[in-house]
Amino acid sequence: MRSILLAVFLFALSAGFAGAVVSPDEILDDPALEARARDLSAGLRCMVCQNQSIDDSDAELARDLRVLVRERLVSGDTDAEVIEYVVSRYGEFVLLRPRLSARNVMLWGTPLIVLVGGGLLAFTALRRRSATRAVAGLSPEEEAALQKALEKRG
Amino acid sequence: MTVELGHFALVLALAMALVQSTVPLAGAQLKSLNLMRVGEPVAITGFLLILLAFGALVQGYVTSDFSILNVWENSHSAKPMLFKITGTWGNHEGSMLLWVLILAFFGALVAVFGRNLPPSLRANVIAVQGMVATAFLFFILFTSNPFTRLIPTPIEGQDLNPILQDIGLAVHPPLLYLGYVGFSISFSFAVAALIEGRIDAAWARWVRPWTLVAWAFLTGGIAMGSYWAYYELGWGGFWFWDPVENASFLPWLAGTALLHSAIVMEKRSALKIWTVLLAILTFSLSLLGTFLVRSGVLTSVHAFATDPARGVFILMILLMFIGGSLALFALRANSLTAGGLFHPISREGALVLNNLLLSTCTATVLIGTLYPLLVEAVTGEKISVGAPFFNLTFVPLAIPLLLAVPFGPLLAWKRGDLMGAAQRLQAAFAIVVVVVLAVYFWVDKASVVAALGLGLGFWLIFGAITDIAYKAGVGKAKVGVMFSRLRGLPLSVFGTAFAHAGIGVTVIGLVSVTTLETERIVLMQPTDVVEAGGYTLRFKDITPFRGPNFTEDQANFDLTGPDGRRLGEVMAAKRLYPARGMPTTEAGIRTFGFSQLYVSIGELTANGLVVHVWWKPQVTLIWLGSLVMMFGGILSLCDRRLRVGAPTRRKAAIAAAKG
Q1: pTM of the predicted model, to two decimals?
Q2: Interface TM-score (ipTM) > 0.90
Q3: B384 to A111: CB separation less than 8 angstroms, yes or no
């Protein structure tokens, strides 16, 4: 949807959305290794695109990076080593899932804070209100009105 | 001439909006009925003027009047008529005009249908709506005027971006905007209530249908955009967690929360303060989305800084409305009295849980969308937040929410019986267990995740059915009684059931296609064969084709089904639009049941044609589920109690009969 929405909204569309992306000559013979390469590619950003992973982009740079990931995997790197290698060359910008670091603490922390904070807030508000209401009971005016209504019926 | 007329009408509409945002407001303060009444005719006239301006622009596009800068930039005389018309909003200026047209349309609707609202509330609502219109009309006239002339007049236009030359452009933006902007009504009601310092169940009864309308349109708009991207972009993706998508998803999440909290407020007059806050936040997120996609800030913070006119303008609008309404909220919220009491285990409690989880989802998507901008603005460093982040944070929040959905409608108001609800859901649970086991053992390649995910979808569907069955008294009452009860159920009960079942349908589609999809990438020579999902494609040939404003190379494939039956041809193409020199991919898609075979072609190399084939099981359920959700929303809207005015008229009729 990105390109369409960008086209609809931003009108600043660059090329880079042609269909078949991963070309057959890149694909590794070992299906397990290829599956790992696809998974890793989906988490790495195409540096020259709008928020696209290298798995989705047909940009030249994305292709180079896909080939690089596969080369490292073939030479026996673990997934973590491949990521580490790519980050050491291109910086953390390349990761579509930012690492948990001091800089990103607000990013990862916000969902938790909202969930726990909101939960506590809702819980205490509920408790406090039912407590005050239960103790307070009816106001004198309400009491009088009730009395009057009861007398009327009786 | 027509162009100048349109331009003039737009300026006049701004004058109307200025009157609309001040006079009724003053009237409400001075308790002058005459001043308050000014709002309605002005709102309606303002809408008609903007409609006139919009019509003038459409005419410019239809007649390919390249003396208008905007038409020259985005149109071409050889373009098919449909795309000439839809091209009107396929660009920044035109789409802002559509935005403001819809805004004025909703304002006029309140003026027409709001006759039985308390006069001061109606005046305030119309005034707030007028303020939003004023801000955006200023924006259009000063930074994004679609009526600018171009001298000398060029002979040919620059054509519309090719991927927008699709029926999707006719449907997606109008639906999306009807949703986006529709939330402005809830916002205006919330602000009006804060201005008055008074809010009651009648207020909620008023706000709910408007929220429902906006929500239903937004649901359809997002689903439509997703399907459009799916078939047009040629790699079969349907959701990318891109900031632009998130910008439309955020008001949807908050709006869904608002729908639910408004129910509590209407039925039990509890959660008042929260509902008002949510109404403000939902439209604020719509405004934020408009800022994000309109200012260019998403491309890069630096791009925003180099051409800031539009961005800064919208940012100011954003700060003014969000800041102003929240300040008003802080001042006045205390004057709103708290309403009915309830036990945590109750319908209200379930809806609070719904709101808590939906708010957390909203906050998660919001922080993920804004964080790269914040980091870059503060430290200058660039980071990326993409799909892997959202999948890791959003999905774990959505799962408990969806698991809890079937319980909500089965709990009683005030104090519910969780064990009782669980007992009623036993049958649904049993079915889900069978489904999970069946999928795990019988479906090829199904993992535990796939089985459980599909189970979640079925849980939502059968949970919704349980709700209806329980309320009709299935198993307890006689068949005849059951049917009369079923008929007697309010439409909103069916609306809830359909909306909840719709999410289930969407979940089944999402889980199937992400876990069970087959993908093949191959090089093909003529007569080569590729198989996916049991279907076999045999590559025939490539033929050139010439469209009205494009040329394409069409690759033809013979399709054979799993049983060996011939199923005709599939055609996928690469298209070139010479006016912009832009290539696009036209995927070949065949639908079997709910599943699709998706073929997309790439480069023609020396060793053959690059062909990408996907088997996408149950993929259409993703969008069909959204339609079911929309249908639920519309059913709910048709409920008598929500047809505003009906109770009053009936009461009046009864009074008249008695009198």
Answers
A1: 0.91
A2: no
A3: no
